[in-house]
Amino acid sequence: MRLIHTSDWHLGQTLHGQDRDFEHAQFLAWLLDQLVAHRADALLIAGDVFDTVNPPLKAQERLYDFIVRAHEKLPQLDIVMIAGNHDSGGRIELPAPLMKRLNAHAVGRISWVDEGQLDHQRLLVPLHDANGNTAAWCLTLPFLRPAEVTGMELGDDYMTGIRQVHERLIAAAESTRQPGQALVAMSHAHMAGGAVSEESERNIVIGNAEALPASLFPESVAYVALGHLHKPQQVAGQARIRYSGSPLPLSFAEVNYPHQVLLVELDGDQLKNVEQLPVPRAVEMIRIGRASLAEVIAALEALPPTGLFDDHLPWLEVRVLLDEPLPDLRQRIETTITGKACRLVRIASEYAGKRGEAESEVLLGLDQITPQELFARAWEAEYGNPADDQALDDFATLLQRVEFAHAEGDQ
Q1: Keyword set for this entry (predicted)?
Q2: 3-state SS string for the chain
Q3: Which tens digit of pLDDT belongs to each residue from 229-244?
């Protein structure tokens, strides 16, 4: 059985205000070709399908048009997607009755039935082989918010609640599957030890909770398809527990990531092989600097002249070290790139020697600072000392409640 694992599409995302619909369209066309070429039996989309809980209409059209075209080309293909922390669980699930007619399943959130029992039936999705037989079960674990895994007899501890959800769902899957059927888990979470892109990933470790341990997924689970971290990676050195990573670089900090989807092969109830399928980049991203203005100007002058269609022109970020304020900095840069094959989306400037910052530090604009980082900076500016762990934990919990309320309000 062949599965394609992907995640973090972030449909509707903009790059410093610039629309990226062309890049998403190119990726989805390529992905459809891969599904056909590799005769995939299932497509797993592990969360953050959209960039915001209230995505633009074009982004929603992209998703549902892709699902329809995939069903037309591969009528037996199972598509399973879960909500990530950027998604609205209700919005993801809204068209579920229609999507089922296309063998597409959307799980936005978990739910509980009488006496605090996990509604595992809606979280277990059968995956079929080329003959239409159930060859595997997909355990869907959308991003778990505190309100979903605490309360009642579950208690108030977030991590304990998460562990109980995993244990109950895996137990239900074990009792449901028949001999030879594989268990495939799909989760949108921050696993312990995962490498994070600080410029474009929200920290979803809540309060004083730790990142989730790999031990949540016992050996009986043949493969774990993860979403949230944009850099492709294994978890705890286990080939069966993986982040596919995002198919597009979502910030300039991710330009060197090996963007890909994963082709997963199962042999009965065992993992046979995982192959990386590199995603071609429809639009390049160029980052020049951190360097002096003279060095930056020289690098800009070396850029090739334009000769591409507008949609294919590379995105450009310029990072300049200055000795003093330069009011005409943007004008100088824009003049230099006139006629060059690029689209300027950001200029970051910093004064040499400021706060003794290390040469390797990333220059961040306000649009790239996480709420947690902004809170920490504001606290230190107000009180003169770094925020303690309790203050950071309280802020993280409050932020999570606000984001959850926002998501609920948009459903």
Answers
A1: DNA recombination, DNA replication, Endonuclease, Exonuclease, Hydrolase, Nuclease
A2: CEEEEECCCCECCEECCEECHHHHHHHHHHHHHHHHHCCCCEEEECCCCECCCCCCHHHHHHHHHHHHHHHHHCCCCEEEEECCCCCCHHHHHCCHHHHHHHCEEEECCCCEEHHHEECHHHHEEEEECCCCCEEEEEEEECCCCHHHHCCHHHCCCHHHHHHHHHHHHHHHHHHHCCCCCEEEEEEECCECCCCCCCCCCCCCCCCCCCCECHHHCCCCCCEEEEECCCCCEEECCEEEEEECCCCCCCCHHHCCCCCEEEEEEEECCEEEEEEEEECCCCCCEEEEEEEEHHHHHHHHHCCCECCCCHHHCCEEEEEEEECCCCCCHHHHHHHHCCCECCEEEEEEEEECCHHHCCCCCCCCCHHHCCHHHHHHHHHHHHHCCCCCHHHHHHHHHHHHHHHHHHHHHCC
A3: 999 999 988 999 999 9
Determine the Cα angle at 14 with ends 140 and 204, to 5°. Answer: 40
Superfamily of domain 2-278: Metallo-dependent phosphatases (3.60.21.10)
Q: At residue 407, does pLDDT exceed 70? A: no
The more confidently predicted of residues 65 and 116 is 65
Please provide residue 205's backbone torsions phi and psi, each rounded to the nearest 5 degrees: -85, 120
Q: Please say whether the beta carbons of 192 and 213 come within 8 A.
A: yes
Query: What confidence score (pLDDT) does residue 111 get?
Result: 86
pLDDT value at position 357? Answer: 38
Extents of the domains making up the chain: 2-278, 284-353, 365-410
pLDDT for 400 equals 66
pLDDT of 246 over the 90 cut: yes
pLDDT of 70 strictly over 90: yes
Q: Which CATH architecture has domain 284-353?
A: 2-Layer Sandwich (3.30)
Spell out a b/e string for 176-194, using b for 16 or more CB atoms within 10 Å of the CB, else e. Answer: ebeeebbbbbbbbbbbeeb
Segment 139-163, tens digit of pLDDT? 999 998 888 887 766 677 888 888 8
Tell me if the bond preceding 290 is cis, omega within 30° of 0.
yes
